[in-house]
Amino acid sequence: MPSFSQTTSQQQTQQQVLSPQQLLLSHLTELPIEALHERVDQELADNVSLERAATSSGDDYGSDASSSDDAAGESDAYDADELGDVSSFAADSSQDDDSLPVAMVTRGDSGATASDTLSFYDQLEQQIGYYHLTAREEEIMRYIIGMLDKDGLLRVPLQQLCDELQVYHNVDTSTDEVERVLGVLQNFEPAGVGAQTLQQCLLLQVDHGPRPASPQKQLLRQLLTEHFDTLMHKRWDRIQRSMRLTDAQVHMLQREVRRLNPRPGSSMGEAVGRNLQQITPDFLVETDPYGSLSVTLNNGHVPPLRVSDDDVAFLQSYEGRDLRSLPPSERDGVVYLRERVERARSFIEALRQRRLTLLSTMRAIVAMQRPFFESGDETLLRPMTLDDVARRTGLHLSTVSRVSNSKWVETSWGIYPLKWFFTSAARLDGTDVSVRSIKAALQEIVDGEDPRRPLSDDALTAALRSRGYDVARRTVAKYRDSLGIAKASLRRGT
Questions:
Q1: Cβ-proximal residues to 493 (8 Å cutoff; 6+ apart), any chain
Q2: CA 192 to chain centre
Q3: In angstroms, rounded to a whole number, what is the distance separating the alpha carbons of residues 220 and 211?
Q4: DSSP 8-state class, residue 414
Q5: H/E element holding 398?
Q6: Where is average pLDDT lowest: 8-12, 224-228, 351-355, 466-470?
């Protein structure tokens, strides 16, 4: 007779699970100022223990006793010698309209209106500067981006990409290298872009979303991995039997699947520049008469918050008492109110941490790009990536990304998205030079040329070298194309 035996084994796995407070802070950090105002109003409506404070110091979110840092203390913590004071400012800045570049922003009574003329592909190319890529990897990345379909998916075989890079760009590469660069692209926003299949697109969104290690997301990943074909035919009865799911789990999965976007490219628009976008800057960077830079956080219409004194006093009257001895209705009321008070305190603390995180990130950007903020000269922009800012601030890379993706800063030279300051590097004479500074110099040279005798690519290369940018002619042609500048023969007479 066959013999059977049972063995028991232990396996240790390490998973990072974000606490509710960390998730709240992560969510609030992503929000620009106008969206934050709406979120605070929603919380005030939902939580009876959260109130508007009677007085405002201008930059404090609350004065709850659970937080030891007052407004002045927070400001002092971020007073840098090289940046000056940190304080709040009114949304209607007195900045002179004529001093702002028209191409970047047109100010109005209710803020600023910026025209975003970037296409879906341009927005992806902007994100290249967020990562440390070599010039060769950047060239491969731009070619891959150009081969994406309008929905953001890549349907061209990797070997075909290798062949075309060899023929059209003289780049001898392998499928392994292209796949590695493609993996970087798949970390871009929106989540799912660069996927080679619909299944991979949805899985990327699960992995890049909040709490990817949660039980709900693990079930969703199992559904997309093991039952994708059945899901495409919407056979939820078969899926429920096969995965042994409860009705509640099925409803949860259906809800999560509906949140996924099978066309991530459509979320960025085909030509987003057709509409004007209302912009409210999250930061203000000013220069005083002595040349010092100051960074200010815009709190907009977000009111100062506090925990209800009456609710705190009511809970204090029950301290030391055994709640089990109370009548059920009274016990439930105390438990409910305690949850509301703790939630209010957590929300106020998350707003305070958001403020410190945003100021820390903006201060680091200003310190690293100080020459630009002082002069407005794009050619003085330095190479800077998310990693650089994360190391300088001590914040996590994903936190810096959340701050940079949706925030704007008003300067003496215009209103800019924070992600605009991130730029990749070109290696010249052993020194890293910002690609944007090279492009800015190239644009300046073309703008100043004689329209009757436009400069050829060779002449542009020589002009750049006279300014200290020793770049190859082929690189100049590539930068010219990316700036939308026509060849010399087509610029004549314009």
A1: 451, 452
A2: 15
A3: 12
A4: E
A5: helix 397-406
A6: 8-12
Helices 198-208 and 215-226 cross at an angle (nearest 10°) of 170
Q: At what angle do helices 20-30 and 328-368 cross, to 10 degrees?
A: 50
Lowest-confidence pick of 74-78, 198-202, 213-217: 74-78
Cα 225–chain centre separation: 28
Q: With 70 as the cut, is the pLDDT of residue 281 above it?
A: yes
Tell me how far apart the alpha carbons of residues 237 and 306 are, in angstroms, rounded to a whole number: 49
The answer to whether residue 274 scores a pLDDT higher than 70 is no
DSSP secondary structure code for residue 227 in this structure: S
Residues 6+ apart with CB under 8 A from 142: 125, 128
Return the SS3 of 268.
helix
Give CA–CA dist 494/486, Å, rounded. 11
- Asked if residue 374 has pLDDT above 90, the reply is no
C-beta separation of 64 from 352 below 8 A? no
Question: What are 393's two structure tokens?
Answer: 């601030």
User: What DSSP assignment string belongs to 101-133?
Assistant: -TTT-EEETTEEEEE---BHHHHHHHGGGGS--
CA–CA distance, 57 with 77 (Å, rounded to integer): 17
Q: Are strands 414-417 and 408-411 parallel, antiparallel or unpaired?
A: antiparallel
The CA distances from residue 24 to 19, 418, 450, in Å, are 9, 22, 56
Q: Is the dihedral of CA 117, 119, 124, 129 positive or negative?
A: negative
201: helix, strand or coil: helix
The answer to whether 230 and 239 have CB atoms below 8 angstroms apart is yes
Q: Are 395 and 22 in contact, with CB atoms under 8 Å apart?
A: no
Residue the block writes with tokens 């066309």: 263
Backbone angles phi, psi at 306, to 5 degrees: -150, 160
**Residues 31-47: tens digit of each pLDDT:** 888 889 888 988 888 88
pLDDT digits (tens, 9 = 90+) for 80-101: 233 333 333 222 333 333 333 3
